[in-house]
Automatic annotation (TrEMBL):
Top-rank taxon: Bacteria
Quaternary context: Homooctamer; tetramer of dimers.
Chain sites annotated for binding 1-deoxy-D-xylulose 5-phosphate: D13, H14, R49, H54, T104
Protein name per UniProt: Pyridoxine 5'-phosphate synthase
Amino acid sequence: MTAPKIRLGVNVDHVATVRNARGGRHPDPLRAAEIAVAAGADGITAHLREDRRHIRDDDMARLKAQLTVPLNMEMAATPEMVEIALRLKPHAACLVPERREERTTEGGLDAAGQLDDLAPRVRTLGAAGIRVSLFVAPDPLQLDAAVAAGAPVVELHTGTWCEAVAAGERLHAQAEFERIVRAAREAKARGLEVHAGHGLDPVTAEAISALPEVVELNIGHWLVAEAVFDGLGAAIRRMRAAMQRGREAASREAAGR
Ligand SMILES: CC(=O)[C@@H](O)[C@H](O)COP(=O)(O)O
Ligand SMILES: NCC(=O)COP(=O)(O)O
C-alpha cells in the first residue's frame, strides 16, 4: 500500500538571520528557497516579523515573484501585516502570535481570546484567495476558535513536545505527543486541514508524519542549522526520508489492523 504523501514546507527565515548578522545580501533566502525546491520542498514558508529581524519585505516580494511552489507567509494578525498580505497575495497566510522580545515563537495564537478581532481578518484574507491557517497549541478550545473564525487550516504548534523530546523528558514528551494526536484527530473531525510545525528535527518529524491527519509540516531551524554541516539539499533529503518513513510505518500499521 502506498502511503499518502505529506507535504514539506521549508522555512527560510534563518538564512535571512545569518545574512542580517553581517548586512549585505549573502546568504540569500531566495537562493535557499530555490535549492529547497530542487531538493523536494513542496512549498516555502517565511515569517515577516513586525521587527523584520530576519525576513524583510523585499525578500517576500522576491520569493513571491520567483517561486514556482506555494508561498506560505507567516505573519502576526495585525492590520499592517494583513495589508501587506493583500498586496503580496501569497498562496497561504499562517497567523502566528508575536512578542518583540521572544527568541522564537513561544506558543500558539490565542485564537479563542481574540476571536472578535481575528475573524474579520481571516475573512478578509480568505476573500482575497489566500488560504488562512492559524498556528495554535494542540488545544480543543483553540480548534473551536479556528472553526468559529472561519479558518480552513490549523498548524499545530509542536514546540513544547519537541523541547521535551530534546530534553529527554520522556513522560512529558509522551503527554505532549498525545495532546497533538488528539488535536489532529479533533481538528480533522471539525473539517480543518491539519498542518504541524516548530522545532521539528528528523526524529520528531518521523513520529508526527505517522499521523494520517497531518498533511503538511513546516520546518526551518533544524534544516538551516544542519545545512552548515551537510548542505541544505542534503538536510532536506534527510528530512523527507524521515517523513516518508513515518508515513509508511503508519500505512503498514493501518493495513495490518
Ligand atoms: C511560527 C514559527 O513557528 C516559525 O516560523 C518561527 O516564527 C520562525 O521564526 P523565529 O525563529 O523568529 O520565531
Ligand atoms: N511554523 C513553523 C515553521 O515554519 C518552522 O519552525 P522551525 O522549524 O524553524 O522551528
